[in-house]
Amino acid sequence: MKDLILYTQPRCGLCNDAKIQIEFAQEQCSFEVKEINILSDDQLNELYCLRVPVLVDAERAFVVQEGQIDFVTIIEYMEQISSK
């Protein structure tokens, strides 16, 4: 099963929206998501501070989407990597 990482921060409306979009995508595709609060790590905070939410393919270290996360893009990405 594919593992994705969702970088978030507290009191982030876009992060809350991203979680909903991810749930929609999980109805169509099989993948797990690990949520990481960027405020728990200074390096992550520096890297993603103005970019959250950021959805990353854990295995490939590839940014699937950042800012506005939508389920269509997630599904398309999952279909693309499963066909390879």
What does it look like?
- This protein has 84 residues and is of the alpha+beta class.
- Helix content is 39%, strand content 27%.
- It contains 3 helices and 4 strands, in the order E-H-E-H-E-E-H.
- The chain has helices spanning 13-26, 42-48, 71-82, and strands spanning 2-8, 31-37, 54-57, 62-66.
- The protein has a 4-stranded mixed sheet, covered by helices on one side.
- Strand 3 and strand 4 form a beta hairpin.
- The longest helix is centred in the N-terminal third of the chain and has 14 residues, at 13-26.
- The radius of gyration is 12 Å and the shape is globular.
- The chain starts with a strand and ends with a helix.
- The mean pLDDT is 95.
Helix content: 25-40%
Look at the structure and give the mean pLDDT.
95
| Secondary-structure element order, N to C | EHEHEEH
Query: How much of the residues is beta strand, in percent?
Result: 25-35%
For the largest beta-sheet, the strand count, sense and barrel status come to: 4 strands, mixed
Choose one word for the global shape: globular
Please count the helical segments. Answer: 3
How many β-strand stretches?
A: 4
Please give the alpha-carbon distance between the first and last residues: 15 Å
Spans of at least 5 consecutive residues whose pLDDT stays below 50 are none
